[in-house]
Amino acid sequence: MNKNMINPDDYITKRKATLLLGFKNSRSISQLVKNGYLKVYNIDSSKREVLKKSEVLALPQQDPPKKIN
Fold first, then answer.
1. CB 49 within 8 A of CB 26
2. On the chain, which terminus has fewer CB atoms closer than 10 Å, C or N?
3. How far apart (Å, rounded) are the C-alpha atoms in residues 67 and 48?
């Protein structure tokens, strides 16, 4: 990846992904990474892993609970 072409706004932390997807903790995000549904990136020299926001938002969403009449 060319550092000049990286837009930091395109990447989010695991914590932010947890909140966006409505999970209670980041273990769910780690499980999605482990199972290959998400990929982690290092966009600078730090060891902090981030996720591509577009990949997180592209995950299938859980169906809302059905209303019982």
1. no
2. C
3. 41
Q: Hey, what long-range contacts does 62-66 have (CB within 8 A, 24 or more apart)? A: 62/22
- Count of positions (residues) in the chain: 69
Neighbouring residues of 21: CB distance < 8 A, sequence distance ≥ 6: 28, 29, 56, 59
Spatial CB neighbours of 40, under 8 Å, sequence gap ≥ 6? 33, 49, 50, 51
Regions in the chain scoring below 50 on pLDDT? 1
Residues 25-42: tens digit of each pLDDT: 989 999 999 999 999 998
| SS3 state at 7 | coil
- Would you call 27 helix, strand, or coil by DSSP? helix
